[in-house]
Every structure is written in C-alpha cells, then in structure tokens.
Write a sequence for this structure.
C-alpha cells in the first residue's frame, strides 16, 4: 500500500451530474436524458421490438456507406433522416445471438466488443459504449479521429482489465493495493481520456 504522500495531489473523481450536464451541453445532448432510470425505462420500451433495434443498427450502416462513398469522416448529412430510437448494448447484441443479423462488424464498430461475448459491466462502462454508438449512428453529431482513437484505447484497456464491475474510474480511498495495479491504472486513464474526448472532440450539428 502506498502512503498518502505518494498519492497525486489532485485526485480525479467522477464528475458530478451538473458537470456532466455541462459537458454534454457542449455537444447538444443533455446527459440527464440518459440517466440510469430513464435509460432503463427507454430500453424496456424496446425490448419487445427487434424491428426498432434493426432500424438503429441499420441507420449506422447506411450512414457509414454514405461516408465511404464520398462524405468526409464524421460528416453530417443534411438530408439524412436520423432515427431517434436510442441505444441498447444488450438488446442489440441479442439480434446477433438470435441469428437475426449477420453484420457483426457493425456492432463491433459501434460498441467496441463482440455481440457474442458481452460481459456484465459497470453502468458507467455501459453508458460510455452506448454514448459512442449514439455518436456514430446519429447524423446529429460530428466527431474527430481523436475521438475514435480514445474510444479504441479505452476498449483495449477495458478488455485487458476484464471489464471490472466496481468503480475502477475512482481512486480507491482506502489505499487498497489493487488501486495501483498497472492494468487498472491504465484503464482509469483511458476512461478519463474518453470522457474528455466526448467533451472536446464531438460536436452537435443537429437542428
């Protein structure tokens, strides 16, 4: 265990709801709409509607095809009709496990993991994966290559740490030696880098 003297003077903490609200206002979407209660409620409305999940995944697939055929990386298409169905990591994965979709690469690009191996994860982890999928699928947002790089590095660190269920993004206040484990330290760093990328590398361009 490390003594308090070896701890950084500035200890990162998860942002308060008010701070995250300000961050998300910068890209035009209030995070309060994705609060755990509201997110769960929205998912429950779509659980019995695979067609809605198909529409969400297909929206990204069509957007990707348009970009590859001429639009710039992350470009907003004024003529695009964005589906506002909402995201659901677990519900979208079910479509592949039930053999209702075969384009596995689309799911992996949006969520960063395979639909056939979706582990239990902390709610903050799931929220980041869902938010990334939202940015990619919706033409209401533009994003930079740095945003995608930050997401890739976060997912790689997440897989290396085997999707911890506890609050890995916090400094352990009990001086637990596990807090200094290199794999967890790297994951914590990648988590906050992705949070900053959402704030600085994503822009809302919708109406």
């Amino acid at each position: 265990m490390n003594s308090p003297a070896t701890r950084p003077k500035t200890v990162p903490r998860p942002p308060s709801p008010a701070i995250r609200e300000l961050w998300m206002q910068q890209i035009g979407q209030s995070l309060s709409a994705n609060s755990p209660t509201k997110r769960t409620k929205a998912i429950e409305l779509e659980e019995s509607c695979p067609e809605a999940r198909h529409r969400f995944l297909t929206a990204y697939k069509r957007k990707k095809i348009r970009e590859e055929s001429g639009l710039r990386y992350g470009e907003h298409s004024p003529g695009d009709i964005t589906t506002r169905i909402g995201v659901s990591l677990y519900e979208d994965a079910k479509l592949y496990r039930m053999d209702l979709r075969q384009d596995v690469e689309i799911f992996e690009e949006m969520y960063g993991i395979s639909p056939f191996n979706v582990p239990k994860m902390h709610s903050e982890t799931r929220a980041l994966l869902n938010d990334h999928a939202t940015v990619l699928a919706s033409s209401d947002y533009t994003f930079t290559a740095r945003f995608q790089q930050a997401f890739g590095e976060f997912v790689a660190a997440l897989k290396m740490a085997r999707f911890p269920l506890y609050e890995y993004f916090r400094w352990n206040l009990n001086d637990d030696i596990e807090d200094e484990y290199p794999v967890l330290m790297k994951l914590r760093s990648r988590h906050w880098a992705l949070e900053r990328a959402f704030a600085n590398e994503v822009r809302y361009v919708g109406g």
